[in-house]
Specification:
The structure holds two protein chains of two kinds. Chain A is mainly alpha-helical. Chain A folds into four domains: 3-46, no CATH class; 54-85, no CATH class; 87-123; 130-203, no CATH class. Chain A contains ten helices and no strands. The longest helix of chain A has 43 residues, at 87-129. Chain B is mostly helical. Chain B has two domains: 5-92, Rna Polymerase Sigma Factor, Chain: A (Orthogonal Bundle), CATH 1.10.1740; 107-200, Winged helix-like DNA-binding domain superfamily/Winged helix DNA-binding domain (Arc Repressor Mutant, subunit A, Orthogonal Bundle). Helices cover 72% and strands 0% of the residues of chain B. Chain B has helices spanning 5-15, 18-40, 43-62, 74-92, 107-112, 121-126, 130-139, 143-153, 159-166, 170-200. Chain B is elongated. Classes of the chains: A mainly alpha, B mainly alpha. The A-B interface holds A 1, 5-6, 9-10, 13, 15, 37-38, 40-42, 44-46, 48-54, 57-58, 60-62, 64-66, 68-71, 78, 81, 84-85, 87 and B 12, 16, 18, 21-22, 25-26, 29-30, 33-34, 37, 44-48, 50-52, 54-55, 58-59, 62-63, 130-131, 134-135, 149, 152-154, 158-160, 171, 174-175, 177-178, 181-182, 184-185, 188.
Chain lengths: 212, 201
């Protein structure tokens, strides 16, 4: 490259030696024209936006720096490297993982369904076995205070129970009571008169607060 | 208020000062990443190469301390590692064109040496954003011209530092820069002319 062209390029980038005089160089028309053209391109480059790496990359580097220096790290985002370096791997890995997840999900659903059936089948029997455990203790009941004397006598012989709604046992008891009819009745069966039922079963239809 | 690179490097090496290392990374991230992105033309790959570069830097500062000699040229040292990583990648992708320095760098050879897999003229013209067009034009430059341009504009190296880093003479570095600017201007002008022609039609 000619010295003149080299010198105007050095002037353009502020790296010219002191003895080189730009003014004298630009007296040459060709050099002046080239200087203008190069300046135009350089101007555009000077105003080009700067590019930065992703923040995850910076975080990973700083974590690696702390790790190498023996300091505790809070993140280890360097793991992103291999996936990103092998786009083919990413293309294969994602479908394989999706299929595996779907299979595991399907097996899980099947297992859950089977276990649900066995639980629901055994539930009434198990409930009957622990029926006494689920009955709230006597301390949870109390008599309704009467305002009139006549009614107070009735209440003494026929106590009307008031449940403490804040007690979880009450909620369990209420659910048990609601489930008993479903336990005994089948929608497919014909209607049976109450008198036809065994006395032990009939007793189970008592509702809370009934006189029997 | 702004400690020089060598002070920060010493703090990290001697007392594992994370803040010092973080300052170094933040200070030079644009210079290193801009160079890498311009070379490989793929942001994801540039992220990987940037990460690999600084992982090597960390390893060198902590274990292989002999590989880094304190000469007041931390950025040049990092860019040398980054350049090796970029060239390794380009060689692996077989995109590296081994052209001898200043070999026929005239108007004709430039057009002959535009990579076949680069963006076509039609693609260039369709991109109306000036910044995008500029970057696309840079991508279309021959690799050796593009590298000097990136090292000068993205990494802020002097032509002497560029010649030391790339192993060429300063005249070669200046010649590549001159052709890069001339070609860029032509490509930009061609894009504008074609845009105007399409508008008038």
């Amino acid at each position: 490259m000619e010295n003149g062209k080299k010198d105007i390029l050095l002037h353009l980038y502020g790296e010219a030696s002191s003895e080189s005089d730009l003014r004298s160089l630009l007296r040459d028309e060709d050099l002046r024209k080239e200087y203008t053209q190069l300046s135009e391109a350089k101007f555009r480059l000077d105003h080009m936006d700067k590019q930065r790496p992703d923040q995850a990359v910076i975080d990973g580097i700083l974590a690696a720096a702390a790790s190498e220096a023996g300091l505790p790290t809070t993140s280890s985002k360097l793991d992103r490297g291999p996936i990103a370096r092998h786009p083919q791997l990413k293309k294969v890995l994602i479908p394989v993982l999706s299929i595996a997840a779907a299979i595991v999900f399907g097996i899980g659903i099947g297992w859950f369904g089977a276990s649900s059936e066995s639980v629901s089948g055994d539930f009434p029997q198990a409930l009957a076995e622990h029926e006494n455990d689920l009955v709230p203790p006597e301390s949870l009941f109390r008599f309704v205070p009467s305002r009139q004397g006549g009614l107070s006598q009735v209440a003494a012989t026929d106590p009307r129970l008031v449940w403490d709604d804040s007690t979880p046992l009450h909620q369990v008891q209420r659910r048990i009571e609601n489930m008993r009819p479903a336990d005994l009745l089948d929608w497919g069966e014909k209607a049976v008169p109450l008198e036809a039922l065994p006395s032990s079963s009939r007793n189970r239809f008592r509702t809370v607060g009934s006189n029997n | 208020m702004h400690p020089p690179d060598e002070v920060l490097v010493a703090r990290y090496m001697e007392s594992a000062d994370q803040a010092a290392f973080s300052t170094l990374v933040n200070r030079h991230q644009e210079r290193v990443f801009g160079y890498l992105l311009g070379m490989v033309r793929d942001r994801e790959i540039a992220n990987d190469l940037f990460q690999n570069t600084f992982v090597r830097v960390i390893a060198a500062l902590n274990k292989d301390r002999g590989t880094y000699s304190v000469q007041g040229k931390f950025l040049g040292w990092v860019l040398r590692i980054a350049r090796n990583a970029a060239l390794d990648h380009l060689r692996a992708r077989k995109k590296w064109q081994d052209v001898s320095p200043m070999d026929g760098e005239d108007d004709t050879s430039y057009w002959d040496r535009i990579p076949d897999d680069g963006p076509s003229a039609d693609v260039l013209i369709q991109r109306n954003e000036q910044a995008d067009t500029l970057r696309t034009c840079i991508e279309g430059l021959p690799l050796e011209q593009r590298e000097v341009l990136l090292l000068r504009h993205e990494s802020d190296l002097t032509f002497r530092e560029i010649s030391e880093l790339t192993g060429c003479s300063i005249n070669t570095a200046l010649g590549r820069m001159r052709y890069a600017l001339i070609n860029l201007r032509r490509m930009m002008s061609a894009t504008v002319i074609k845009d105007l022609t399409e508008v008038s039609e």
